Amino acid sequence: MSIESLTAQLRHFAQDRDWEQFHTPKNLAMALSGEAGELLALFQWLRDEQVSEWFEDPANRTAVEHEMADVFGYLLRLADVLDIDLESSLRAKIGINAQKYPVELARGNALKYTALAAMRPADS
Question: Any alpha helices (H) in the chain, and if so which ranges?
């Protein structure tokens, strides 16, 4: 299923319930943040080495899938309401990040781009 068809399905879901009145950019952004918080809460207090085993439990996996779907759904609704093409926006952002995080400087470390910029040779 494409992003366009998912967006249309969510739009119709909201229209059928007369929820468009509630789907303002502010409300959708808040809902998106809330759902991201619910996803984060599933992993809260787990040590990194515990996550793989925890995720093998079908109930935990389903909970993560549902929260990720909620995040994705609200992101799609917000993009729809604001008339933002997420695919082209993501492609553009990947290009921006490629400039900020050149492979030769970013490979294998988690430094922020501002720290990487200080590592660039003076002539670049």
Answer: 3-16, 25-43, 48-56, 58-82, 86-100, 103-106, 113-119
Q: Which phi and psi (to 5°) does residue 3 adopt?
A: -60, -40
Could you state, in order of their start, the residue ranges of all structural domains in the chain?
A: 1-84, 86-124
pTM confidence score: 0.89
Superfamily of domain 1-84: MazG-like (1.10.287.1080)
Q: Beta-carbon neighbour count of residue 80 at 10 Å?
A: 20
pLDDT for 60-105, tens place per residue? 999 999 999 999 999 999 999 999 999 999 999 999 999 999 999 9
